[in-house]
Amino acid sequence: MDSIVVKGGGALSGQIPIAGAKNACLTLMPACLLSEEPLTLTNAPRLSDIRTMTELLRSLGAEVTSMQDGRVLAMSCHGDINTRAEYDIVRKMRASNLVLGPLLAREGHAEVSLPGGCAIGARPMDIHTDGLMLMGAQIDLRDGYLHAKAEGGKLKGAVIDFPFASVGATENIMMAATLAKGTTVINNAAREPEIVDLADCLRAMGAQIEGDGTSRIEIQGVERLHAATHRVVTDRIELGTYMLAPAICGGEVELLGGRINLLQAFCEKLDAAGIDVTETDKGLKVARRNGRIQAVDVTTEPFPGFPTDLQAQMMALLCTAEGTSVLEEKIFENRFMHAPELIRMGADIEVHGGTATVNGVKKLKGAPVMATDLRASVSLILAAMAAEGETKVSRVYHLDRGYEHVVTKLRGVGANIERIKE
Ligand SMILES: CC(=O)N[C@H]1[C@@H](OP(=O)(O)OP(=O)(O)OC[C@H]2O[C@@H](n3ccc(=O)[nH]c3=O)[C@H](O)[C@@H]2O)O[C@H](CO)[C@@H](O)[C@@H]1O
Ligand SMILES: C=C(OP(=O)(O)O)C(=O)O
Fold first, then answer.
1. Where does UDP-N-acetyl-alpha-D-glucosamine bind (predicted)?
2. Ligand 1 pocket: which of 22, 25, 123, 166 to mutate (most atoms <8 Å of CB)?
3. What are the angstrom distances between the C-alpha of 246 and each of 45, 55, 214, 241, 288?
């Protein structure tokens, strides 16, 4: 199992290229199941989750070719389709649940293993299944699998009011509705940039969708979708993560491909904490203003609010802020597993339920720590980059799910970091 060793150092400078979004690409890939013609994605990130989705799509009968060192994914689904998404693959990754809508729309039935929970919390699918049932699907849970069948073999349009703006449910229903008979309306839809990216891709495939990026999305079903090529949107979570590197360590770093509108709420918190963010021709420049970082309170919310996927990294910043910060996690019930590890590095954090209170200390100190999930892993690396001495982060395989070439990217701006095999 690999570990990452970081020696805390001084200010950073240089540029970091930002990849295509994991959470967009994992949604765009299952869209290939909606058409007999090929779907090509460019700007794909090189991540283990993408390889898992490739394995899942192949198991369903899709041809997936990875080109240009994984940057381009060509997917084609013209033959017979296997409609059963097996537990052995689905359990590896929450995003596997995104094949349900496309399989049901194309074949009229599907059997998809429930993803269950993961380290950060439960990953229920009731909002997805309630929506599909309104579209005429019959869905039962048997042997850990959702067995779904469309009445008469074809889904029909429906008006669906979500009780919560679920990202995954919006994506599943949007994909299912592209081939349904009639019009589907999703009220209280998720508004994340990854939803807009999916809508752009589906439109390029011939789907009729309006309202993405707002809380009301309307999809007019069509007979078939066709071939398309689509560029995956910039990864706003990778962007925000690397924006925190100069914020924590000092110096100035340019994030290539970044835009403020992907992370407005996050940028406002950085400003309040004493970090300057400016848009350039190529991306975003981030620099820490003089003096200590200031404490800020953060509440995670659906987009356009502060993203849950940046809460752990923000906590790493606030550990050394002047004053007390309160972080409230509103999306996942168990997303503070980085707190005990940051405490091992000298942070002063108290967690009560979904609230973490961080009393800023002057300096963190290197320690052996353990990565518990994807964003927790990278928060420990960020904290270690400004800590005194050496930190060893073990179980970094979590990191490979969401960050490509993290060591190369951080070394490129001056961090003292290496990956070791044990
Ligand atoms: C709103 C939000 O921030 N969603 C995040 C969520 O998307 P993801 O699609 O995984 O999660 P959802 O947006 O669906 O769900 C978030 C919340 O809704 C609840 N829920 C969800 C579906 C359902 O059928 N029933 C239900 O109760 C979940 O338990 C959770 O508390 O994780 C992704 C990372 O992997 C992030 O990129 C998304 O930004
Ligand atoms: C938790 C994440 O991913 P997933 O939903 O795929 O587990 C994430 O991207 O931070």
1. 94, 309, 331
2. 166
3. 23, 37, 33, 10, 7
Would you say the CB of residue 164 lies under 6 angstroms from ligand 1? yes
- Ligand 2 pocket residue status of 23, Cβ below 6 Å: yes
Strand spans (E) along 344-386: 348-352, 355-359, 368-370
Task: Note if 319 is an active site residue.
Answer: no
- Residue nearest atom 7 of ligand 2, based on CA coordinates: 94
ipTM for this model: 0.98
Of 248, 239, 301, residue with least CA distance to 267: 239
**Ligand 1 close to Cβ of residue 125 (< 6 A):** yes
pTM value is: 0.98
Residues 22-231: name the CATH superfamily: Enolpyruvate transferase domain (3.65.10.10)
- Taking the C-alpha atoms of residue 183 and residue 383, their distance in angstroms, rounded to an integer, is 49
* CATH number corresponding to 2-19+234-421: 3.65.10.10
Which portions of the chain are predicted below pLDDT 50?
none
Query: Each residue of 43-80: pLDDT tens digit?
Result: 999 999 999 999 999 999 999 999 999 999 999 999 89
- CATH 3.65.10.10 in the chain, residue ranges: 2-19+234-421, 22-231
CB contact at 8 A, 299 and 266 = no
Indicate which ligand has the atom closest to the C-alpha of 168: 1
Regarding the beta carbon of 331 and ligand 1, being less than 6 Å apart is answered yes
Q: Which residues are annotated as a binding site for phosphoenolpyruvate?
A: 22-23
